[in-house]
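Thread: Sodium:proton antiporter, structure

OP (GT): Posting the sequence first so everyone is looking at the same thing. Length is 415 residues per the record. Can we get the structure tokens written out before standup tomorrow? I want them in the notebook alongside the other entries.
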Amino acid sequence: MSSELVVGLLFLVAAYALLSRVLEVRLITLPMVFTATGLVVGLAGAEIVPMHGGREVVHMVAEVTLVLVLFSDASRISLRALSGGFAIPVRMLLIGMPLTVLFGTLIAKWVSPDQSWALAMLVAAILTPTDAALSQPVVTSDAVPGPIRRGINVESGLNDGLALPIVLIAATLAAGAGTIDAAQQPGGLAAFALKQVVLGPLVGVAIGFGAARLLDVAIRVGTLSEVYQGIFFLSIAFIAYFGAELVGGNGFIAAFTGGLAFGNSLRASARFIEEFMEGEGRLLTMLTFLIFGAVLAPLGFQHASLKTVALAILFLTVVRMLPIWLSLAGSGLGNYEKLFLGWFGPRGLASILFVLYVLEQFNVPGRDELIACVVLTVLISIVAHGLTASPLAARFAGRTEAGRGEPAEKVPGDH
């Protein structure tokens, strides 16, 4: 990047920080601002990512951001609270999410019958995870009942990690013999996929639990300075990732399960994780949406078609809302609450990072259509969910359902 472009982007970051509260009230979200900026810069011909080595830069940013998002989100999820009083997100994750992948696979195959079932499942798996950051007014509004906010946040925090094995298996099957490392694995693709989804969690849990115990001891005996807590957190996330990769497991699954074990084993305060992600993590999110707008969005427009537009709209509506509605049957929620939870499944960071990772690591067919479908879905979601979050959340203010008027709370899974 030229010095002028770097200075301009830094001014944008500083300006957004200064005006962040005002912009959020005006329905202008962080993803909107940085995606639009990246798109304008990309269409103008400026290089945010240099042509030489560009793929490596994009891949590195995707990996770093995804590892931190998975580890930090998982570390803020309380398994005890989840099992005790989180009926809504449990239904959405255990019933709604599998149905979403199933419906998405069927719809993708119906719209593109010439593509394989594995590719259809890959599209569905990439577009199933949600991103609560795209509808932040919903999860911070006093008007929205607490159980609804928790449902959106916990689902968003957990479905990234739960979707990972499906993404990996679908990508492996879609790529076939072209999959990196798969052909060299004893037993072929099945053995490769099994090692990925078994060894990854085992390594992650072991490292996360051990790191939590070490941190508790260091805090108790006074050998750890507070300013280094974030650095310790950062190093453990990547130890889990690379540790799994060394033994043939999947590093992303290890990061997720490692964060889950770390957060639920740590006895000391985990406030430093939230502070770290609100600072360094937010900058990485800005960079990711900037790259998305500059690099992926133009590619998506280039390969867009009526099929990809139709898929994007269907994935944000029927494919998402019908499974969520079915999963919440008998939950006691009213029609508005069910529709609300179904609509606020925005697609953002996880879908962007998953498609970047798949395109870099797997030689899947139909790459152009895959990029176009994901790009259009995320772009529509950024605008549609950003604009509707505040108005639809405000409608709860006059309603009398159970849970109305509960105070806003910081709940796990918000990224």
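GT: Both are above now. Quick notes for whoever picks this up: The chain has one domain: 3-398. The chain is about 75% helix and 0% strand.
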